[in-house]
Specification:
Number of helices: 4
Radius of gyration: 14 Å
Low-confidence stretches: none
Oligomer: single chain
Mean pLDDT: 89
Helix content: 10-25%
Amino acid sequence: MTETARTTLSDLASEVRSKNAGPFWVTMEVFLRDSAGYGIAADGSFLDERVIAELYAVDESHVQIFRIPSLNVVKISFPRRVGQASLHDRDIHSGQHHVPLAMLPVPAG
């Protein structure tokens, strides 16, 4: 059985990255290649606070999404589950937090 490759958010982007936004917050940025990709990524029926809450096991009410059409960028911030450099922090710089977002399948169509 062959799996059909699905287009992911990463396929539409020139870069998807994550970083600390202070010791208690993570910020992720999706830089889309063009306005068509931005239109998909910025669509609230595809990417919203609920989706981020499910991907990162955070409270939906704490997720902030900023859509910046003039730059073809979607920026997402949410509280870290553990504080930066605390005993259970496995990614001190939040440099790998973007991976689940980058791998998010884009709706066919």
